[in-house]
Design brief:
160 residues; alpha+beta; Arc Repressor Mutant, subunit A; two-stranded antiparallel sheet; 5 helices; 4 strands
Length: 160
């Protein structure tokens, strides 16, 4: 167990120390699932609309575990971002044009949420655990919104 420690600015008491137990070490860090998923989606985008690409080819070229890639693609398929094709020339292909797939959509599917700070929800609403809430959450909400807007403004085609 790790402790996330940060200080909030309180108008009455100055700095208030906040300690939150967590299993995570960092706050703003996407998982390897997202990094690998984006790399694999770029591979599919490079082949759009020609042919499906097998996971074994992607795993070998990107040096990603085949089993891990299968779990990633199960999520992507369930979200409708990729389609599978059976047969000897089978594999996966994008379900739509790479200009229509936002990086935000891929990240959200693979991360499960985009709450970048512990005191915010996905909509940027502040949930402070302190008895004396500070204004740091307002700044963090702006940062989170900027990151989300940036991810929404980049499409898969921009990465190839």
């Amino acid at each position: 167990m790790y402790w996330l420690v940060y200080y909030c600015v309180d108008k009455l008491f100055g700095y208030v120390k906040m300690e939150i137990p967590t299993k995570k070490v960092g706050i703003m860090k996407f998982s390897t699932r997202t990094t690998y998923g984006l790399r694999a989606m770029i591979k599919l985008a490079n082949n759009w609309p020609k042919k499906a690409v097998s996971l074994s080819v992607i795993a070998r070229q990107e040096k990603i575990s085949f089993k891990y890639l299968e779990r990633i693609f199960a999520r992507l398929r369930q979200a409708g971002l990729v389609e599978s094709e059976k047969g000897t020339s089978g594999g996966y292909r994008l379900s739509r044009d790479p200009t229509q797939i936002k990086i935000y959509d891929i990240v959200k599917v693979l991360e499960g949420h985009l709450t970048l700070f512990y005191c915010l929800d996905e909509n940027g609403k502040v949930h402070c655990s302190s008895d004396k809430p500070c204004n740091v959450g307002l700044v963090l909400a702006k940062v989170q919104l900027a990151i989300i807007k940036t991810l929404q403004g980049i499409v898969l085609r921009d990465l190839i």
